């Protein structure tokens, strides 16, 4: 969800950087533990070609895959206590995002397709402002890319995107209707799935 | 996304499949229009090179996912419905292409007449409701020979008929009672009258055309005589009755017995319940006594003995003649039959018609007497036709054709049942078309009873709502694409709507019949006499009573 | 075929039966050790030490307080800063294309309290220059390659160097604790007791220099402590002292696994931690002892090493400290509570040391990558790579 605070916070400073890159999916490590935009948010990275992607998952885990995290909160009053008692967690844990590439911008022109060259590792990543998101969502061709991604929970990602991002625009009903119609075209033979998405979007 | 709002207002959808025989399937782009689209609506399809005109013949609902049809998708969520309508679920219409035009802005070709559709548009061709220009282009615009009969379904534009073209053939107005046949007929008569392309002879069985008629809600409407007093003459079979209704007839029609011939009796066979043998007897009697005197002589026979005598003489069974005598006596009792002298009624009618005066024959008290109606109608028509055959044949030499006549008959099936149609004058007229400048305007509620051959001769059919399957079949027999028109015909409103198709129209069209009966409607005929003006003024002052 | 596991398994079986037999004997010995400490008297010990120290085959610590004394602390400190350093190394490989070694120092700074935060670092130091790789004796031009024990000593020096730097940078506002892993006594140099150059290099100009720096910082503040943490220690300082007082034999020669001339009261083989685990309750520490003098002790100058045992989570750890900490009861108290807190947070081992270790650790994969990197770099600079045939055969396992 892009709220005012985040809007002020994210565009100015990067939320993280690309640590795994491909044409279809990116992994972004957040610079600060737990400080990531919500699932379904649109983020961007790259300088000449700006690549847009939608957050499909947020993971916080041990940086060292051989070290497992263990329960620490037995005697703590709150999770904040645990982090205060164990400041090393800030360095040992990291929050990373999986994103699905949905388009790119070249010379002010936005394309809803996979960029021909993926972003670089360590490319700084920014959260898109509401304005940028709406600019990107003038048409909904990118929903095709989202839908065809092999993510089992892609429907939830789509719902989050539509509900939180478009839902916060000035004229949500018009945008949501158009987005819904695009989805309906994409899911013309799976109305069950379509209905489930739409019902949740309209809540 | 650029969207021209003006263009899109009338846009209905795009072509997705179809065939010339089955019609073209059009997916509605705006889902909300399904309930607004009506069968019978006139639409245009913008093909690549051709512009097609057609009629909506069917409307259906479609879905891209079968689960919807199985009912396994259920959502009361309005947003879901809103999104799905037009995408997952959509409306479809079937358009039957009727005409084509070159799709051009070029002035030269823009005025070309549309041709019957022999092909269909491409995929994704845009379909829109027909515009006023489309209607004018296809049906012509209002002018001397072209008469505005109504509006295409749900449109403001005027739909016009070429009256000159219309009267060259026998035409029919069909519809079950109460569907506005009479109103439509009245309009057609006015059209003929105003275009001056023919003279009307109206056998006004129910006294509705001459002076005044009644609309469904018992509002009085003006008859032809009131609207066009100088152009219309009312003849009456029953002067007293006419006067009671506030009309002094121009002429009181009477017939002498000698004017009745075998053919006039033959057509009454069913009504008089005559046997074939009895008809034979009429034929023999006519020979025996002579054409002019047979009925007079036969009916003057008094007593059983005299009939037995003649029966014996003519080699008939006594009982046959007795019952024939008995039945023919009914004719004898009609007031308009003069037993003593002959009359010149038919000549009078002809004279008026030749002068271009339209004649309404009122039946007065005989308004529901089928016997009187058929007898008189047949009698007059036969003789007028006879005269016209003569006139037309001499006109070749004189180079002056007689003025065409349109004879309006109601309850036409009584004259045109398969059993008698070949023998009666009406069958003859219908078949020979305008050869002798006499055509019929058939008004009927049971077209299925009319001889199929006659039906197929009918140039233009005006079909109001018919609910009997057989009647629908009868009206549509021999019409191209009749299967599509069926659904259109069946879905007409029960009032003021008609499907028109046939000779004088480039394509079938559903109309909302032109308004008739209000002061404005009278004015629209270009009439504004003093009387009307007073009424209008009164209405404007006090509002409608 | 590599290790023949079948044959190995049989030998393990035999070993297990040996162990169980030995176990009972060992338990007996521990009981005797407890007995010995109960009868221990400092006066007696001092006297015996003076008498016999020259004939002993082992060294004994200096005991100024009864070893059975126990200390607990109720002092709980919530706001403090801990700095820990650990290191690891890649040994010089004679088969490698070039001669070099690498020490990787991991540090961990944890700040507890309101502005809790953590800073980790991992600093690799590659030693490849000729004078970095050897210890030169200017007198006889002999050289000692820094490898094995010398490398371990070199690492210890680097570790304490880093710890000193961390301490210097840190703010003195909060209580501070500096932790090293392992012993402060550079026991790896024991074998070089007569190599003056080596001992000078590593102890005097290495360890002691750094200890001086740390000492100067600590003495300036009142709430900074420094210690080295030895988990699961195998030391026997106190047992040695008990042997001195309790052995019935003329010449006390009982080793870890006993010997044939063992006396009836022999406690040889018992470890300090085994003894203290019966004495100390969780959270308690023993009294502080001066580490046993050895040949290296004199090089430590005024940084005489002291130690105590502490029960953390039912495990005995040994804490080594310089005397300027061990002789300051206030600092001892602080150290005691901070060590306990660190171990509580680290589930029995100081969390800071654990993280420092994680930063320092060099995995096998890293080691391989390190070699590959060297080869690649040399190759890029057109330096011919010579490697031994043995190494070559290891890389290329042909049939």
Describe this structure in words.
The complex is a heterotrimer of chains A (203), B (545) and C (399). Helix content of chain A is 34%, strand content 25%. Chain A has 203 residues and is α+β, with helices and mostly antiparallel strands. Chain A has one domain. In chain A, helix 7 runs antiparallel to helix 8. Chain B is built from 24 helices and 23 strands. Chain B is elongated, with a radius of gyration of 28 Å. Chain C has 2 domains: 65 residues, no CATH class; 243 residues, archaeoglobus fulgidus dsm 4304 fold (2-Layer Sandwich). Chain C is built from 12 helices and 12 strands. In chain C, helix 2 packs across helix 6 and helix 4 runs parallel beside helix 5. Classes of the chains: A alpha+beta (203), B alpha/beta (545), C alpha+beta (399). Chains in contact: A-B, A-C. Chains A and B meet through helix 7 and helix 8 of A and helix 3 of B.
- Poorly predicted residue ranges of chain A: 1-10
Number of helices of chain A: 8
Assembly of the depicted chains: heterotrimer
CATH domain topology of the largest domain in chain C: archaeoglobus fulgidus dsm 4304 fold
**CATH C-level of the largest domain in chain C:** Alpha Beta
Portion in helices of chain A: 25-40%
Q: Report strand order across the widest sheet of chain C.
A: 4-3-2-7-8-12-11-10
Mean residue pLDDT of chain C: 86
Number of alpha- plus pi-helical segments of chain C:
12
Morphology of chain A: globular
Number of domains of chain C: 2
Under the CATH scheme, which architecture of the largest domain in chain C would be assigned? 2-Layer Sandwich
Total individual domains of chain A? 1
Largest beta sheet of chain C, briefly? Answer: 8 strands, mixed
Proportion of beta-strand residues of chain A: 15-25%
Summarize the biggest pleated sheet of chain A.
Answer: 6 strands, antiparallel, barrel
Tell me the β content of chain C. 15-25%
Order of helices and strands of chain A: HEEEEHHEEEHHHHH
Helix content range of chain C: 40-55%
- Amino- and carboxy-terminal Cα gap of chain A: 15 Å
């Amino acid at each position: 969800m892009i709220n005012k605070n985040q809007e002020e916070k994210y565009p100015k400073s990067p939320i993280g950087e690309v640590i795994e890159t491909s044409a279809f999916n990116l992994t972004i490590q957040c610079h600060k533990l737990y400080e990531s935009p919500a699932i379904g948010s649109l983020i961007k990275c790259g300088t000449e070609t700006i690549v847009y992607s939608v957050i499909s998952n947020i993971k916080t885990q041990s940086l060292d895959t051989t070290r497992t995290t263990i329960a620490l909160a037995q005697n703590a009053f709150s999770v904040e206590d645990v982090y205060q008692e164990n400041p090393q967690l800030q360095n040992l844990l990291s929050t990373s995002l999986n994103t699905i590439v949905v388009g790119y911008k070249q010379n002010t022109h936005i394309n809803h397709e996979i960029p021909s060259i993926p972003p670089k590792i360590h490319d700084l990543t920014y959260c898109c402002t509401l304005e940028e998101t709406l600019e990107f969502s003038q048409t909904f061709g990118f929903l095709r890319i989202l839908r065809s991604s092999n993510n089992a929970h892609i429907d939830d990602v789509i719902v989050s995107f539509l509900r939180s991002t478009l839902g916060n625009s000035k004229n949500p009903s018009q945008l949501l209707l158009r987005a819904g119609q695009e989805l309906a075209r994409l899911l013309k033979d799976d109305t069950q799935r379509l209905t489930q998405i739409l019902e949740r979007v309209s809540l | 996304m650029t969207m021209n709002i003006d263009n899109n207002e009338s846009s209905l959808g795009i072509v997705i499949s179809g065939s010339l025989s089955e019609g073209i399937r059009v997916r509605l782009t705006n889902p909300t229009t399904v309930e607004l689209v009506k069968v019978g609506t006139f639409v245009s399809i913008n093909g690549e090179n051709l512009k097609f005109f057609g009629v909506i013949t069917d409307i259906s609902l479609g879905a891209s996912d079968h689960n919807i049809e199985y009912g396994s998708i259920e959502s009361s969520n309005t947003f879901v419905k809103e999104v799905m309508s037009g995408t997952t679920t959509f409306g479809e219409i079937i358009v039957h292409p009727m005409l084509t035009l070159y799709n051009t802005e070029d002035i030269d070709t823009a005025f070309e007449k549309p041709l019957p559709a022999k092909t269909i548009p491409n995929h994704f061709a845009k379909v829109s409701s027909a515009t006023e220009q489309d209607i004018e282009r296809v049906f012509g615009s209002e002018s001397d020979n072209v008469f505005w009969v109504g509006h295409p379904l749900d449109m403001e534009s005027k739909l016009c008929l070429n009256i000159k073209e219309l009267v060259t053939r026998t035409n029919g107005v069909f519809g079950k009672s109460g569907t506005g046949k009479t109103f439509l007929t009245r309009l057609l008569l006015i059209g003929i009258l105003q275009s001056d392309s023919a003279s009307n002879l109206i056998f006004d069985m129910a006294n509705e055309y001459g002076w005044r008629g009644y609309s469904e809600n018992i509002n009085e409407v003006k008859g032809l005589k009131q609207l066009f007093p100088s152009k219309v003459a009312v003849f009456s079979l029953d002067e007293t009755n006419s006067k009671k209704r506030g009309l002094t007839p121009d002429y009181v029609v009477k017939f002498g017995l000698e004017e009745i011939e075998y053919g006039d009796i033959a057509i009454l066979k069913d009504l008089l319940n005559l046997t074939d043998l009895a008809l034979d007897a009429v034929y023999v009697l006519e020979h025996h006594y002579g054409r002019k005197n047979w009925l007079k002589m036969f009916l003057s026979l008094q007593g059983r003995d005299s009939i037995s005598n003649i029966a014996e003489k003519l080699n008939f069974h006594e009982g046959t003649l007795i019952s024939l005598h008995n039945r023919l006596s009914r004719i004898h009792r009609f007031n308009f039959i003069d037993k003593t002298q002959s009359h010149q009624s038919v000549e009078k009618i002809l004279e008026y018609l030749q002068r271009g005066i339209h004649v309404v024959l009122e039946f007065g008290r005989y308004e529901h007497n089928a016997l009187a109606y058929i007898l008189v109608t047949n009698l007059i028509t036969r003789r007028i036709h006879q005269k016209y055959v003569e006139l037309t044949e001499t006109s070749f030499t004189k180079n002056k054709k007689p003025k065409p006549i349109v004879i309006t008959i109601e309850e036409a099936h009584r004259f045109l049942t398969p059993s008698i149609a070949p023998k009666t004058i009406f069958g003859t007229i219908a078949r020979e078309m305008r050869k002798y400048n006499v055509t019929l305007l058939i008004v009927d509620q049971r077209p299925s009873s009319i001889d199929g051959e006659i039906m197929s001769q009918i140039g233009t059919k005006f079909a109001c709502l018919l609910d009997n399957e057989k009647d629908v079949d009868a009206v549509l027999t021999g019409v191209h694409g009749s299967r599509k028109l069926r659904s259109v015909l069946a879905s007409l409103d029960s009032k003021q709507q008609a499907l028109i198709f046939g000779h004088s129209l480039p394509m079938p069209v559903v109309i909302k019949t032109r308004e008739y009966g209000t002061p404005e409607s009278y004015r629209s005929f270009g009439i504004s006499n003093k009387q009307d003006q007073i009424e209008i003024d009164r209405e404007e002052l006090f509002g409608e009573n | 075929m590599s290790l023949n596991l079948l044959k190995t398994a049989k030998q393990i079986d035999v070993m297990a039966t040996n162990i169980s037999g030995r176990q009972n004997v060992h338990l007996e010995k521990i009981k005797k050790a407890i007995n010995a400490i109960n009868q221990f008297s400092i006066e007696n010990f001092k006297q015996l030490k003076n008498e016999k120290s020259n004939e002993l085959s082992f060294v004994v610590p200096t005991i100024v307080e009864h070893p059975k004394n126990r200390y607990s602390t109720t002092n709980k400190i919530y706001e403090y800063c801990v700095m820990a350093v650990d290191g690891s190394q890649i040994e010089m490989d004679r088969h490698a294309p070039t001669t070099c070694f690498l020490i990787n120092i991991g540090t961990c700074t944890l700040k507890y309290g309101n502005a809790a935060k953590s800073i980790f670092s991992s600093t690799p130091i590659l030693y490849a220059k000729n004078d970095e790789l050897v210890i030169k004796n200017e007198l006889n031009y002999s050289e000692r390659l820094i490898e094995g024990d010398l490398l371990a000593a070199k690492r210890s020096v680097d570790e304490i160097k880093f710890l000193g730097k961390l301490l210097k940078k840190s703010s003195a506002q909060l209580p501070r604790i500096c932790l090293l892993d392992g012993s402060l006594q550079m026991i790896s140099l024991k074998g070089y007791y007569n190599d003056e150059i080596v001992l000078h290099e590593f102890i005097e100009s290495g360890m002691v220099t750094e200890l001086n720096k740390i000492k100067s910082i600590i003495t300036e503040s009142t709430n900074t402590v420094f210690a080295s943490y030895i988990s699961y220690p195998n030391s026997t300082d106190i047992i040695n002292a008990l042997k001195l007082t309790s052995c019935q034999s003329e010449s006390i020669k009982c080793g870890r696994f006993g010997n044939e001339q063992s006396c009836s009261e022999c406690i040889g083989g018992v470890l300090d931690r085994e003894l203290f685990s019966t004495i100390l309750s969780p959270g308690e520490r023993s009294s502080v002892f001066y580490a046993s003098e050895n040949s290296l002790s004199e090089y430590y100058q005024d940084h005489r090493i002291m130690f105590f045992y502490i029960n953390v989570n039912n495990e005995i750890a040994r804490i080594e400290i310089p005397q300027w900490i061990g002789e300051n009861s206030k600092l001892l108290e602080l150290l005691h509570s901070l060590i306990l807190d660190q171990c509580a947070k680290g589930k029995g081992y100081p969390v800071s040391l654990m993280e420092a270790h994680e930063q320092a650790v060099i995995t096998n994969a890293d080691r391989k990558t390190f070699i590959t990197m060297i080869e690649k770099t040399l190759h890029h600079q057109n330096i011919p790579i010579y490697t031994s045939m043995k190494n070559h055969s290891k890389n290329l396992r042909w049939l």
